[in-house]
Amino acid sequence: MSTDEIRASWDAEAATFDDEPDHGLRDPATRAAWRDLLLEHLPPAPARVADLGCGTGSLSVLLAGEGYDVRGVDLSGEMVARARAKASAAGVDARFAQGDAAVPPLSPGSFDVVLSRHVLWALPDPAAGLARWIELLAPGGMLLLVEGFWFTGAGLAAVDAEALVRAAGRSARVLPLTDPVLWGKEVSDERYLLVSR
After folding, report:
1. Beta-bridge partners for 195
2. How many Cα atoms sit within 13 Å of 2 on the Cβ side?
3. What is the mean pLDDT of the chain?
4. Closest listed residue to residue 73, CA positions, set 42, 96, 102, 39
5. Could you tell me how far CA 184 lies from the centroid of its own chain?
6. Residues with Cβ within 8 Å of residue 30, at least 6 apart in sequence
7. Residue 3 pLDDT class (50, 70, 90 cuts)
8. Strands (E), the chain
């Protein structure tokens, strides 16, 4: 698919994207589970966070509400519009830009954290995208990558994600994400958080 086709596909998904419990974070228990998971690994606020492939901005808004300085990027203009509306409704200062997560329109060396959820696997060249993400980090910055290898056959196995991160010269620690409250349902496929400091 071309970039325009991918963008159009995600634009079409925007209206129902938040229907998935882990996307919309509408359930208080699911929202709290994601909050606790992220805060356990993030540096203290007001650390600067780049949320790449932010979708409708649920994680960006969640973190901005905790005092983080968040910039979200998504290829889909419809997703970005919904993310801006969500931040406005929550009264938080998360900022969003339309752009390709593979080549984010952000300044190198200007973030303490690069966060992405279910994005690395979908990049045309994950190693090149990861290298660009690392360039965004200030010294001592960290990657927080939520990924999975799903029952559909799509995704990125933890062993492969770990190999990509290590090949880029960084540490990698993989934590399984099996708690059903994170997803709003029981899951049997591989879902994980990769932390790289």
Report:
1. 144, 173
2. 3
3. 96
4. 96
5. 18
6. 21, 22, 181, 182, 183, 184
7. confident
8. 48-52, 69-74, 95-98, 111-117, 137-149, 173-176, 190-196
Is 145 in contact with 120 (CB distance < 8 Å)?
A: yes
Say what percent of the chain tops pLDDT 70. Answer: 100
Q: Which of 156, 99, 162, 93 is nearest to 132 (CA)?
A: 99
Q: What is the pLDDT of residues 85-137, one digit of tens each?
A: 999 999 999 999 999 999 999 999 999 999 999 999 999 999 999 999 999 99
Return the pLDDT at 151: 87
DSSP secondary structure code for residue 43 in this structure: P
pTM of the model: 0.96
Question: What distance in Å separates the CA atoms of residue 130 and residue 139, rounded to the nearest whole number?
Answer: 16
Cα 197 to Cα 181: distance, rounded to the nearest angstrom: 26
At 37, give phi and psi (nearest 5°): -60, -50
